[in-house]
Amino acid sequence: MAFRIDETDRKILAELQRDASRPLEEIARAVGSSKTPVWNRIRKLKEAGVIGAQVALVDAEALGFEACFFVLIRTAEHEAEWQQKFLKALKERPEVQEAHRLAGDIDYILKVRVPNARAYDAFYQALISEVKIHNVTALLSMEEIKSTVALPL
Q1: What is the DSSP string of 61-117?
Q2: Domain 7-47: which CATH class?
Q3: Cα three-residue angle 62-67-72, rounded to 5 degrees
Q4: Helix (H, G, I), strand (E, B) or coil at 21
Q5: Which SUPFAM superfamilies does the record cross-reference, listed alphabetically (predicted)?
Q6: HSE-up of residue 15 (Cα within 13 Å, Cβ side)
Q7: Domain limits of the chain?
Q8: CATH class held by domain 61-140
Q9: Each residue of 8-48: pLDDT tens digit?
């Protein structure tokens, strides 16, 4: 059975998505409740898997990761063994921030964050040395216009 989320839960989740590091009292005040009921709801949302890991969002450019590539991958391989090898290669590479399997002409899209084009090429060379890929197209993001992990609650 799916976990039921009411309007108060949605308000709490919206506040946590804004900034989960704020004191519980501040979050409770923002949702029009008190500390203990909000703490209990957050605990239940965590137990239900609605809230996952709480992490710090780090500025990639401030740390020298100035290049963001979107990598479109087509493969002629669709066997389970190839997929396992490919997924393992992606999971072992910290440069891959996101990986999605797609419907349509492109099989996979990756979001890869690296310091520069040379670092992307090293990533690319390492990847194709581990798994056979039919076609790769890399698109350099010139400007990040919007980026969020918040869901529209």
Answers
A1: GGGT--EEEEEEEE-S--SHHHHHHHHHHHHT-TTEEEEEE-SSS--EEEEEEESSH
A2: mainly alpha
A3: 140
A4: coil
A5: Dimeric alpha+beta barrel, Winged helix' DNA-binding domain
A6: 23
A7: 7-47, 61-140
A8: alpha beta
A9: 999 999 999 999 999 999 999 999 999 999 999 999 999 99
